[in-house]
Amino acid sequence: xxxxxxxxxxxxxxxxxxxxxxxxxxVFSRQQAWLLYGAYLLLGAALDIxxxxxxxxxxxxxxxxxxxxxxxxxTLTLAWFIRGLRRLPRADRPALWRSAAFLVGLIGxxxxxxxxxxxxxxxxxxxxxxxxxxxxxxxxxxxxxxxxGPVLRAGMPSFLRPLLDIKPVRASFxxxxxxxxxxxxxxxxxxxxxxxxxxxxxxxxxxxxELMNATMALNGIMxxxxxxDPRPHPPARYSxxxxxxxxxxxxLPQMVLGAILSLSERDxxxxxxxxxxxxxxxxxxxxxFGGLIIWLPGTMxxxxxxxxxxxxxxxxxxxxxxxxx
Length: 325
Prior knowledge:
Structural class: mainly alpha
């Protein structure tokens, strides 16, 4: 059965069960893990109290509005990644540069969502676009480059691993990462959350705001993992041709949306007047800069992805040629 990136092979699963290296999966290690989870909860509770009662006195790197889902997703992912690296055999660990890319993407996502950068994103449209450019493009791209799925699986508690293999979870991933759905969903979410009436509602509702950010971040990881998968097809889901087509499919609609917002003389997002802009900038200038962020950096990201696809193609061809010799 082909192995998807992010879902380890039976060898990875065996290593996870056996603990990878001696002594790393003993009782004491499990006790340490649960103590660490308790420490995470206490730290999260402290941050929640500080952000609730003293938001204006906190430094820029602290959360503006504390989010338990973001905090737990980040801290648990980081803990499982570190634990998984210790448990997997050295030969099964991703390259150092891939691990670094994963960590930069993960920490960058947290910085966008759980520092005072989030305050700026709630009060300036162009800062909001920078936030989503990171979550949907740069951050997702870096996390996908990390190929951290087997590491995370090895590091998570054993009772959670079977949940990754149940049919509804597999079926959902297969659908969301299918050829017909993945590129359209990537662009569709961008247009959906920027539909002006909906965007106004979302920016005034904390729950919808967090849902928007979560869908953009998760969709970015899922899409870019298909594009930057270093393996040939099969076992990779997409052939080189489909990866190139997917990049082209997402590029043109982004350019169109960015051009509309950056050239329009109408303010589509008056909600930022309601929230109050933190910089001395007119509504149209704010919108124009936001449109340019969708247009130019988004297009450049597609070029970077295209280069990555071609590099992986060359490496796979060279590897196949060495095997023939």
